[in-house]
Design goal:
- The structure is a single chain.
- Strand 10 and strand 11 form a beta hairpin.
- Helices cover 29% and strands 25% of the residues.
- The strands form 5 sheets. Strands 9, 12, 15, 16, 17, 18 and 19 form a 7-stranded mixed sheet that branches.
Length: 401
C-alpha cells in the first residue's frame, strides 16, 4: 500500500515552505513518526515525520523547491522493510561528493543544522569527532572538518551544483539563501522603509548588578537549576519602563495604535541559520528564575534547531545583546510590527565622574531604537532612563519604582 506524505499545517498565516534537506532517501526503511524531511519556513525549520512504518518509495520534490501546505512531497510503501524502491523522480542533487549520513542511527543523532552542514560541505560525519554534549557533532565540528578537507583541493561546490572556477588560486562559493535568511532580509528592509527609525543612547554603571550577581549566583543556580545572568535584570527593568511608557510597548496597525497590558519580550538569540527572536511571554509576571529558564531553554532550542512557530509568535518588545559578541555600541533595528528594541553591549571598565571624583566603573552603553511615528523622543528617552536607573539601583525592581 502506498501512502502519500504531505506538507503539514505549518502555523498561523504560513502557507508554504522550502525543502531544506531530505533526511531519508528512497529505499530507506522508516518508522512511524521518524523525521524524513526538513522544511524551512519563514521562521523555523519543521521536520515532517513518516505517517507509518515502511520504506520511502520516492521524493516528489527536490531540495530548494517551494511547497504549499497539503502538497504531496513523498510516497511511502507501507509495511515493507529494506526492499529496493524506485528512484526518486525529483530527488535532491547536492554536490556529488556530499554523502548523506551513513545510517538511520546517524541521521537521528544529528541536528537539522548539522545535517545541512554535512550535505552542503560533503563531509562524512562518521569521520568527525564531535565536541558537543555526549560527543555529538556540532555545526562548528563539520565546518572545521570541511575547511581541513578543502585545504589545497578543488573549489567547493556552488549552490547550483557546479564547481566555481578558480582564479589565480582564489575560490568563490555561491550558496542559495535559506528561506529564514530571505525573510530576515525582507523584514529588516521593510522596517527601514516603513518605520521612522531613530535611536537614543545612554550608559549604565553595572556595578550594582554585578555585585548582586556575584553574591547570589551560586545560591540562585542551586535553588532554581539555572544560571543568573544579566538578561533577567534587563528584562525586569524593561518591564518597568514599558508599564510607565505604554507607547514603547505598543504597535501601529493601519491607522490604529494597539496598546498591550502585558509584556511579551522577544529575546534575540543566535541560531545556525541566523538571528531568531523567540518570545518570553508575560515577562512582567515572571520571576527572575522564570525569565532565565525561558531564555536558557530558547537558547538550547535555537542551537539544536528545534524552535517552533509558537515559540516565535507575537512579542511586544525586543532585547538584543550584541555585547556577547563584543559590540561596544550599535543602533539595533526594530522587529516589525513592534515599535522599539533595546540593544545591550559589552561591559568594560571606563573612567567616570562620581561625586566629583574620577573613578573606574564597569560601564555598558545601551541603545533604544524606536519608531518615531508612534514614540516621541521624550518617551523614548524616558523609557531608556528608567531602564538605566533600575539597573544602577536594582532595589527599584523589587519595589516597582
Amino acid at each position: 500500500m502506498t501512502i502519500e506524505v504531505k506538507v503539514p499545517v505549518l502555523g498561523e498565516s504560513v502557507t508554504e515552505a522550502t525543502v531544506g534537506e531530505w533526511l531519508k532517501q528512497p529505499g530507506d526503511a522508516v518508522k512511524a513518526d521518524e523525521p524524513i524531511v526538513s522544511l524551512e519556513t519563514d521562521k523555523v525549520a519543521v521536520e515532517v515525520p513518516a505517517p507509518a512504518d515502511g520504506v520511502l518509495a520516492e521524493h516528489t520534490v527536490a531540495v530548494g523547491d517551494t511547497v504549499e501546505v497539503g502538497a504531496v512531497i513523498a510516497r511511502l510503501s507501507e509495511g515493507g522493510a529494506g526492499a529496493a524502491a524506485p528512484a526518486a523522480k525529483a530527488a535532491p542533487a547536492p554536490a556529488a561528493s556530499a554523502p548523506a549520513p551513513a545510517t538511520a542511527e546517524d541521521a537521528q543523532t544529528l541536528s537539522p543544522a548539522v545535517r545541512r552542514a554535512v550535505l552542503e560541505h560533503g563531509v562524512d560525519p562518521s569521520t568527525i569527532k564531535g565536541t558537543g554534549k555526549d560527543g555529538r557533532l556540532t555545526k562548528e565540528d563539520v565546518l572545521t572538518a570541511a575547511k581541513a578537507k578543502d585545504s589545497g583541493t578543488a573549489a567547493p561546490a556552488t549552490g547550483n551544483g557546479q564547481a566555481a572556477a578558480p582564479a589565480a588560486g582564489r575560490n568563490v562559493e555561491r550558496v542559495k539563501m535559506t528561506r529564514l535568511r530571505q525573510t530576515i532580509a525582507k523584514r529588516l528592509k521593510s522596517a527601514q522603509d516603513t518605520a521612522a527609525l531613530l535611536t537614543t543612547f545612554n550608559d549604565v554603571d553595572m556595578s550594582a548588578v554585578i555585585a548582586a550577581r556575584n553574591t547570589y549566583k551560586d545560591l540562585f543556580e542551586k535553588k532554581h537549576n539555572v544560571r543568573l545572568g544579566f538578561m533577567g535584570f534587563f528584562a525586569k527593568a524593561a518591564c518597568l519602563a514599558l508599564k510607565d511608557v505604554p507607547s514603547v510597548n505598543a504597535q501601529i496597525d493601519g491607522d490604529d495604535i494597539v496598546y498591550h497590558d502585558f509584556v511579551d519580550i522577544s529575546v534575540a538569540v543566535s541560531a545556525p541559520n541566523g538571528l531568531v527572536v523567540p518570545v518570553v511571554r508575560d515577562c512582567d509576571k515572571l520571576s527572575f528564575a522564570g525569565i532565565e529558564k525561558a531564555i536558557a531553554d530558547y537558547g538550547k532550542k535555537a542551537k539544536d534547531g528545534t524552535l517552533t512557530m509558537d515559540d516565535m509568535k507575537g512579542g511586544t518588545f525586543t532585547i538584543s545583546n550584541g555585547g556577547v559578541f563584543g559590540s561596544l555600541m550599535s543602533t539595533p533595528i526594530i522587529n516589525p510590527p513592534q515599535s522599539a528594541v533595546l540593544g545591550l553591549h559589552r561591559i568594560e571598565d571606563r573612567p567616570v565622574v562620581v561625586d566629583g571624583q574620577i573613578v573606574v566603573r564597569p560601564m555598558m552603553y545601551i541603545a533604544l531604537s524606536y519608531d518615531h511615528r508612534l514614540i516621541d523622543g521624550r518617551e523614548a528617552v524616558t523609557a531608556l532612563k528608567i531602564i538605566k536607573e533600575a539597573i544602577e539601583d536594582p532595589t527599584r525592581l523589587l519595589i516597582d519604582l
